[in-house]
Amino acid sequence: MAVVENFAPQIVFLPDIDEPSQDHHALIPRTPVPATFNTNALLSLPIVDEGADLVKRYTGETVHIQNLLDLMPTWPSKKHSQDVLDEVAAEIDGWLKTVNVPQAKKECGTGERYTTLASVLYTDCSKRKLVTLAKYQCWSAWFGEEMDNPALDSAATRHLRDQTLRCIDTCLGSSPPGPTNLDNTASGTVAVLREVLTAMRAEMATSSADRLRRELRDSVESAARRHAARRHDTLPDPWHHLDVRCDDVGALPNITAGEYAMGFGLPDAVRYHEAVETVVLECTRLATLVHEVLSCQRNFRDGKLDNMCLLLANAENISVQAAVAKVLGLVRKHYEACEAAESRLPLSENASNLNDQIRGYVGGCKRLATGTAHWAYLCGPCFDTASLGEIWALSFTLGQ
């Protein structure tokens, strides 16, 4: 199929986890989207069934997963005090009553769930900013759900993508949005994003806001491409899938939102320094891999087979348990590569304030990885919580 050829990875990402890396770049190759890639054309192709053989083969397999926080032992995993969490969750619950989104998105526990997520990602932010960041996490989840909805046709996908991109450009552009350039016909989900980005932009450095704009655009475009690709019968290559997920899961925007949370704007010369960039990309990979592992049970049950563990098992003709072990091997290697990069951070003896910002930024990157796991264990959005043991070890049977 010609469309599938567009997805062929140009770089193979660690096919053998026992092979030592050659340098600090070896773990973070990126697969660029081909210049000829046409999302609209892919969306226009008919929907076909996929993965029936995978489902038949792995239904009934029992999988055991250790506590993933144990794989990142020196990294932070904490949250705000319970009093702060309760107050913010109550405010979010009140806000949910005012937003124009389907009632199912406002289900009981939504405020608590996304307040907790914002807290484990942005542990040191003020209560006021935690409210905004919890709303941002609500939007991110809702947008992801809409893009993951198999009933969303190609026209609806393009419409949501285009509305979201216009909102991002309007709110995070060089000029603050005025009443005349706001889209009052936008969907409820897009309106929530507009509220959040307007609040964040008012307290972000120009360079940080522009970085967030670019990263959000890339994430939205990547999510639209993944939705289009899911409509076809050929399962994606697992390594290319990992590249795509690192883009569309929103990891980079979550990291940049940390600059809003911590109240500083990291200069581009520092942000794109080799060591800082390595930390960012390694933590993005880590967060994505952690999410893929912990989402395996739910993805299989819901028929969303574009999961790293499932794809790797299928591609290498191994059990899902063996695939999970390989992915956890990648987690260990990415953790080690990130730790090694810290020794190369651009710290200066004469710039203590900037040094603190760099360390704070790196800590925020690490919380993206640990927070992804911590939140899953606290709130159980990715798996049946009955499968979770006292030490946060997870056991489940695929298909149940």
From TrEMBL:
InterPro entries: Isoprenoid_synthase_dom_sf, Terpene_cyclase-like_2. Its EC number is 4.2.3.-. This is Terpene synthase. Keywords: Lyase, Magnesium, Metal-binding. Its cofactor is Mg(2+). It comes from Gaeumannomyces tritici (strain R3-111a-1) (Wheat and barley take-all root rot fungus). It holds the Pfam family Terpene_syn_C_2. The keyword Repeat does not apply. The gene is 20347917. GO terms for molecular function: metal ion binding; terpene synthase activity. Belongs to the terpene synthase family.
